[in-house]
């Protein structure tokens, strides 16, 4: 099997959207997806791109993707990369594509002089063992907070 990785282009929007829907099904969160091909096109390839995507292909077929963006560490005084989503289609799992996608992101991080790469993983996801095998460690002492919907609007309206 010939595996390749490449940065996504605007013409890949349909494939990116398909990966997002498949990932949402896998994570049992499909009901939370409000993204559309149009909104992805605007936010990934519009005037102000907010994230980047790398695609994995196996024998020319779409096999996986990773969507990431930059964050910043005040302690390191360096940018970082935050992986929002990483997904490999079931038929391609166990063939090194996940590690290949992470390696590709790590090379981008090094090229851009980033201090770290971070991502969240659902606690039931069996990929956690894989992530630990490559040296990633769980940040169990941190609790994630999220502000969305009406609460976000209400707080933002106070300013």
Which terms would index this structure?
159 residues; 25% strand; alpha+beta; Aminopeptidase; five-stranded mixed beta sheet; 34% helix
Structural commentary:
This protein has 159 residues and is α+β, with helices and mostly antiparallel strands. The chain has one domain (3-157): Gcn5-related N-acetyltransferase (GNAT) (Aminopeptidase), CATH 3.40.630.30. The protein is 34% helix and 25% strand. The protein is built from 5 helices and 5 strands. The protein has helices at residues 13-26, 37-45, 97-111, 127-133, 149-157, and strands at 3-7, 52-58, 61-73, 78-88, 117-119. The chain has a 5-stranded mixed sheet with strand order 1-2-3-4-5. The longest helix has 15 residues, at 97-111. The model has no long low-confidence stretch (mean pLDDT 96).
Concise overview:
With 159 residues, this protein is α+β, with helices and mostly antiparallel strands. The protein has helices spanning 13-26, 37-45, 97-111, 127-133, 149-157, and strands at residues 3-7, 52-58, 61-73, 78-88, 117-119. Helix 1 crosses helix 2.
Biggest β-sheet: strands ordered side by side in the sheet: 1-2-3-4-5
Query: Total domains, how many?
Result: 1
Low-confidence stretches: none
The radius of gyration computed from the alpha-carbon positions, rounded to a whole number of angstroms, is 17 Å
Largest sheet: number of strands, sense, barrel closure: 5 strands, mixed
Shape: globular
Averaged pLDDT: 96
According to DSSP, the number of beta strands is 5
Q: How do the helices and strands follow one another from N- to C-terminus?
A: EHHEEEHEHH
**End-to-end gap:** 55 Å
CATH class: Alpha Beta
Q: Specify the oligomeric state.
A: single chain
At CATH level 3, the topology is Aminopeptidase
Helix-residue proportion: 25-40%
Would you identify the CATH H-level superfamily? Gcn5-related N-acetyltransferase (GNAT)
Task: Give the amount of beta strand, in percent.
Answer: 15-25%
Structural class of the helix and strand makeup?
A: alpha+beta
CATH architecture: 3-Layer(aba) Sandwich
Please report the number of helical segments.
5
């Amino acid at each position: 099997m010939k595996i390749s990785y490449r940065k996504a282009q605007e013409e890949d929007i349909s494939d990116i959207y398909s990966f997002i829907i498949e990932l949402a099904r896998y994570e049992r969160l499909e009901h939370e997806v409000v993204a559309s091909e149009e909104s992805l096109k605007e936010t990934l390839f519009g005037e102000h791109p907010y994230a980047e995507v790398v695609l994995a292909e196996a024998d020319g077929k779409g096999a996986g993707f990773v969507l990431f963006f930059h964050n910043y560490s005040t302690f390191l005084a360096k940018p970082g990369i935050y992986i929002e989503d990483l997904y490999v289609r079931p038929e391609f799992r166990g063939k090194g594509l996940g590690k290949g996608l992470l390696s590709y992101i790590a090379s981008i991080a090094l090229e851009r002089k980033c201090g770290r790469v971070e991502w969240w993983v659902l606690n039931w996801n069996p990929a956690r063992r894989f992530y630990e095998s490559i040296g990633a460690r769980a940040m169990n002492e941190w609790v994630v907070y999220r502000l969305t919907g009406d609460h976000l609007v209400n707080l933002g309206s106070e300013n």
